[in-house]
Write a structure and sequence with these properties.
227 residues; alpha/beta; 9 helices; 49% helix; nine-stranded parallel sheet
Length: 227
């Protein structure tokens, strides 16, 4: 895929519909990015984020994007500047994830044809991010929030806006967030850590995907019964 053949928002919609879980590979080295990415994709992940404070992150993003093509949306996390957005685009990344709500970064992401997933913590930040062109929101850090806070946010955010919960998430902590309306999750250290055995990464990935699919199924059935 060339740098001009980018449609990040559409690709995000397809990847998100398949599996709304983002694998956050903070600290991944380019030498291991391919095998870790393969394990995640085999487990069902379709969204992969390499934070820009990882070793040579653009090399890892480029390798993963080339390896998996249009079927997996690869991008960067901890994107803090407009210059970072362009660097990720050139590397082949199609997803821009930030820990904060910086409207200049969001607008630059949308203008570049990439998918924007800005971090937010308050309704004001969330609404500002949406107005600037955010395609979905990242509630971060989840450890400083709660499912009840998310539920309250969803009453004032535009109907249908997807919120992913990020920060301290594991297979065992997803249930109350799904019940509160979380559309998906970003998983970092619970999924990948430097020097974690590849087989353990693969097993954790399979477990997380399985648990989320079960929880989402329960949530949908509950909505249908009460709808």
């Amino acid at each position: 895929m060339g740098v001009h053949d980018v449609n990040g928002p559409d690709d995000f919609e397809r990847a998100f519909a398949q599996c709304p879980l983002i694998a956050i590979l903070r600290g991944v080295d380019p030498s291991e990015a391919i095998e870790v990415g393969d394990a995640l994709v085999d487990a069902g992940f379709t969204l992969i984020e390499v934070p820009l404070n990882s070793p040579e992150p653009l090399r890892s993003i480029a390798a993963l994007a080339k390896r998996h093509g249009a079927g997996v949306l690869v991008g960067a996390g901890t994107v803090l500047t407009v210059r970072d957005v362009e660097a990720v685009r050139i590397a082949g990344g199609r997803l821009i994830v930030s820990p904060n709500t910086d409207t200049s970064v969001i607008r630059a992401t949308a203008a570049a044809g990439l998918a924007s997933l800005p971090g937010y913590a308050t309704p004001t930040e969330g609404l500002d991010a949406i107005a600037a062109g955010g395609h979905a929101l990242k509630l971060f850090p989840a450890e400083a929030s709660s499912p009840s806070v998310l539920r309250a946010h969803l009453t004032v955010l535009p109907a249908g806006m997807r919120v992913l919960v990020v920060g301290g998430v594991s297979a065992g902590t997803m249930k109350p967030w799904v019940e509160a309306g979380a559309a998906g999750f970003g998983l970092g250290s619970a999924l990948y850590q430097k020097h974690k055995a590849l087989k353990d990464i693969a097993e954790t990935a399979r477990q997380v995907v399985s648990v989320f699919r079960e929880l989402r199924g329960i949530s949908k059935r509950s909505i249908e019964r009460t709808g």
